[in-house]
Amino acid sequence: MSKNALATGLICLVAVLVTSVFFWLLTDLVIHGLPRLSGPFFVEASQNAGRSGGIGPIIVSTALILLVAIVTSAPLGLATAVLLSEFTRPGSLFGRLVRRSLDVLAGVPSIVFGLFGNAFFCIYLGLGFSILSGGLTLACMVLPLLIRTAEQGLQVAPNDYRLAAAALGMSRSAALTHLLLPAAMPALVAALLLAIGRAGAETAALVFTSGYVDRMPDSLLDSGRALSVHIYDLSMNVAGGDANASAAALVLIGLLLIINTIAMSLAKQWRIATP
Amino acid sequence: MSLMINTKKDNPGAAYTLGPLQAGPPCCVPEPLIQVDNLSLHYGAKPALAKVSLDIYKGCITALIGPSGCGKTSFLSVLNRLTDMIPDCRVLGHVYFDNKDLRHPTLDVQALRRDIGMIFQKPVPFPLSIRRNIELPLREHGMNKAADLNARVQQVLQDVGLWEEVKDRLEAPAQALSGGQQQRLCIARALALRPKVLLMDEPCSALDPIASGVVEDLIQRLRGQYTVVIVTHNLAQARRIANYAGFFWVKERAGCLIEFGQAKQIFEAPVHELTAAYVQGKRG
Ligand SMILES: Nc1ncnc2c1ncn2[C@@H]1O[C@H](COP(=O)(O)OP(=O)(O)O)[C@@H](O)[C@H]1O
Ligand SMILES: [Mg+2]
User: Fold this and answer.
1) Which of A87, A93, A168 should one mutate to test binding to chain B, selecting the residue with the greatest count of B CBs within 10 A?
2) Of A168, A179, A183, which has the smallest distance from its Cβ to B113's Cβ?
3) A32 in helix, strand or coil?
């Protein structure tokens, strides 16, 4: 057998293994979780530590945590991306320093962000275990991803626009708001959706910051349980919670799939739109 | 042929501001508008221009010719300070525009670029409608009244002979126009700012011969009212339209101005042998 055929065989084997693991997981979730999925499951409060009842308050908490994370990280991330791509000379010390720090931050395990969030937001700023603490921690976590993706989107906008706008006596900020940002918009939205996807799948950073409380939150300063934390808790700490954990996991996977599909189709459209 | 197309499309309407086609060069009283003195330019450590001195005369068309890489684009970019946007680009020497130091650190660069417009080799219509392409820079410079904007849009589109072709679809995306139409739109967009000088970097080389002829006739009509500096690889075109011509060549890895003078002299009686070889198509 030739080396080529061997390599092809190996690659196919790995591919089959990887996909079958995913399908096994999915089948398992569907078998255990699908019977629990129903209209009321999405709105009812969880009962008996989550063994029965639904995930209504948990969906609300998750949405609020994500909202806090996005509302704070999106403007900050966009501003930083614009600063890096439009107002920093290529190769400058400042730009190199910021980019390097972001790349390091992007590789930091999320549990470290969780501990940092706990120390800084919960204790030092006195926000306690709350949706606010959790959202802000997630914001810190997705910021590097957000900035780097948004920056790439801005750099895809043709340099010709910058030159032509400058040659017409337009200011940099005018070129930015009228030409570059609109051209980069699909990429920016894709970056945002990717960040939401990453934040939505996060558990470790939330366990120590937004906490476990599965009641309907009254305000952002209430503790709230995110979907991922709920799944983790049900499967690790609650005997007999497996069925509801599977159902909640199905909901989470569904949500992430939807978000990812939208992000990818936007990103694809953006690549086609910019030659 | 291109001349016929042009005269057919541009039936002289009331709002025309450009004069009729003028006969070839030379036509003008040499009154310098831009004076370049000992200009050198480096990209990092790499020299691109060495000691270029020449005058650009008011109301004339000055053609810059020479092989690729001899610094013609770099030279144009100095004149409207687009070189400011290139990191590591160092410029030495003096440039005066209207007797003012064009490279002075406190000069209002945006105002300068309004006076000295630039047309690029590849047309760069913005991803906006035809109308918005022209309006956007005007609005940036403080023109806000709809009536003023409409009048200016119509006037410059007529000037470039595009009005009849696009007047019914001003809201259509500019990028749907043909290459030649896009280039004329870019010229219209630059003219809308009422510049004194237009720098054109190979404006016809991305166009088919007919579109190229239309743009060439347009450039002819700019003569007198505007000062035009045009880089072109088309020697026949340079010969047809230019009053003055400058020949660039790479010497010791940097672009130099070999010869500058009236176009007739450069093309028919060049002094320098390099120029003679180049304009006769023997080198370059
Ligand atoms: N932004 C840049 N950075 C570095 N080198 C450049 C840059 N632009 C042009 N050059 C170099 O400068 C020289 C002159 O280029 P250019 O002005 O574009 O010449 P031309 O327009 O006559 O072809 C070339 O050798 C080119 O490689
Ligand atoms: Mg060039």
Assistant:
1) A168
2) A168
3) helix
SS3 call for A1: coil
Q: Does residue B161 have a pLDDT over 50?
A: yes
Size of interface A-B (CB pairs under 8 A): 61
Q: Tell me the C-alpha distance between A198 and B110, whole Å.
A: 43
For ligand 1, say whether the CB of B16 is within 6 Å of any of its atoms.
no
Q: Output the pLDDT for position B283.
A: 65
User: How many Cα neighbours within 13 Å face the side chain of B4?
Assistant: 1
Does B110 contact A at CB distance below 8 Å?
Answer: yes
Q: Answer whether A147's CB lies under 8 Å from A141's CB.
A: no
Homologous superfamily of A37-273 in CATH?
MetI-like (1.10.3720.10)
Distance of CA A121 to the CA centre of its chain: 20
Cα–Cα dist B196/B193, whole Å: 9
ipTM of the complex: 0.83
Phi then psi for residue A149, to 5 deg, are: -70, -45
Average pLDDT, chain A: 87
DSSP per residue, A79-104: HHHHHHHHSS-TT-HHHHHHHHHHHH
**Do residues B82 and B265 make contact, with C-beta atoms less than 8 angstroms apart?**
no
The residue among B116, B118, B135 whose CA lies nearest residue B126 is: B135
Give pLDDT tens digits for B86-110: 888 889 989 999 888 888 888 899 9
Judge: B110–A160 Cβ closer than 8 Å, yes or no: no
Long-range contacts of B106-110 (CB under 8 A, 24+ apart): B107/B81, B109/B81, B109/B84, B110/A169, B110/A170, B110/A171
Classify domain B2-279 at the CATH topology level. Rossmann fold (3.40.50)
Q: Is the CB of B74 under 6 A from ligand 1?
A: yes
Question: pTM score, two decimals?
Answer: 0.77
B259/B40 Cα distance (integer angstroms) = 16
The residues spanned by each domain of chain B are 2-279
Query: Could you say which DSSP state residue B176 is in?
Result: G
Q: What does the pLDDT read at residue B18?
A: 55
**Structure tokens that stand for A213 in this block:** 């409380």
pLDDT tens-digit profile of B212-222?
888 888 888 88
Q: Is B122 on the interface with A (CB under 8 A)?
A: yes
Q: Whose CA is nearest to atom 27 of ligand 1?
A: B69
Residue list, CB under 5 A from ion ligand 2:
B 73
Contact across the interface for A169 and B141, Cβ inside 8 Å: yes
**What are the structural domain ranges in chain A?**
37-273
